[in-house]
Prior knowledge:
By secondary structure, chain A is mostly helical. The first copy, chain A, contains ten helices and no strands. The model of chain A is unreliable at 1-7 and 220-229 (pLDDT under 50).
Amino acid sequence: MTPRHSPDPSTDTKTALLDAAERLFARDGIAESSLRAITSKAGANLASVNYHFGSKEGLVRAVFARRLEPLNRQRLGSLEKCLEQGQGVTDLHCLLQAFVQPAMTMMRSQDAGDREFVKLLGQTLFGPSVELRSTLFEEFREVGERFTSELGRALPGVPRKEIIWRFHFMVGALAHTVAARTTVSHQLECLNLKEDDDTEVITNRLVSFLLSGWEGLATAPTSTKEPEE
Amino acid sequence: MTPRHSPDPSTDTKTALLDAAERLFARDGIAESSLRAITSKAGANLASVNYHFGSKEGLVRAVFARRLEPLNRQRLGSLEKCLEQGQGVTDLHCLLQAFVQPAMTMMRSQDAGDREFVKLLGQTLFGPSVELRSTLFEEFREVGERFTSELGRALPGVPRKEIIWRFHFMVGALAHTVAARTTVSHQLECLNLKEDDDTEVITNRLVSFLLSGWEGLATAPTSTKEPEE
DNA sequence: GTCTATAGGTGGATAGAC
DNA sequence: GTCTATCCACCTATAGAC
Lengths: 229, 229
């Protein structure tokens, strides 16, 4: 008996709750999704959330933890590959790709859960809840530090503070791309431009844009008339 | 008598409600801010919101409308100045500055309401509420169209679809910068880098980054090994 | 216009049977 | 582990006195 690793139906209830919550959170927001709606969609009982996760907040945290860890590992793994390939010289383009691509792939994943999740992640990153953001920040910490560190090494002339700002510009551009994709599609439709690009094309657009920004070859002086240092 | 344009205290109640709502929305989120908390903070009665704005949704819309119109006008005004100065040639840097600076100035305005508002705006842009986002989209439409149009003229070789994507990258970077400034400050503190930059410096960082991205001089090929076209 | 009081509904959480 | 029934806090909105 028990032919699978997770034989008991309790696990299934747990993941059903996670799936339903993830979906409703992404669609309606966390505060707007009631436990009643979540358990109903999951085909579970109202009390099951409290049993399995202790509280709604516990459920929220579990939703994020489930997919954040794989995302982080993928990013860090790609970063390591960049370093191996680079053999000393750090390849900026490879680093940006390593950071951007995992999120973009999730955006167009076959798994609907992945798609819902990145939308949710983007929303939450900009959301008002302080405690939730600091939870996310904690989970993201290692990735952020590894990437800013390597990006700094790839751009020796750029001070650390500037690196961090550029990193945040990048996070914003990426988050908006994955979270507000619906808006973009809508806008393109209004202009009779069908949005037929696949993940790779959009990723390349974004990475190219970011790469230029990071390389900073623009003719932008510090002030309107001041020359560059 | 009635020595001012807005003599009756009803106007004051109205703006007090708007101020309180704006602040609480930005701090706790819209769904999380109850009318009780808002009216209490405004020193008004619970029923006053329904009297002055019809419903909570009416209040929300009024909060956005109040500051969105000046922001739009400032952006469009700056854009017109760019066109006048340029005398035919469209200055990309000027356009980006015209789009970015008004929001950044609000971020560090002396008026606390301005600061709260941009935070709220950034949050809502990424939020889940469909109807609210489409309201914002409608209010933003003219600005978006004018800017993408002029940006396209400033970059004759770039197809319209690419312009729109880059515009969204820019919006994301800007929104994250104004909405998550707290996060950035926190991160900089953790690294013992005091975040003492004034608005102008941060704006210049962002505009430089974006300018490079828009100019697109990066050495990013379409694929990992393909040469540029 | 402002206020009190309350209706009418939904939220998260729990007790206790099964 | 699952379910029903229920508690109680809180929400928005409104009716009606002042």
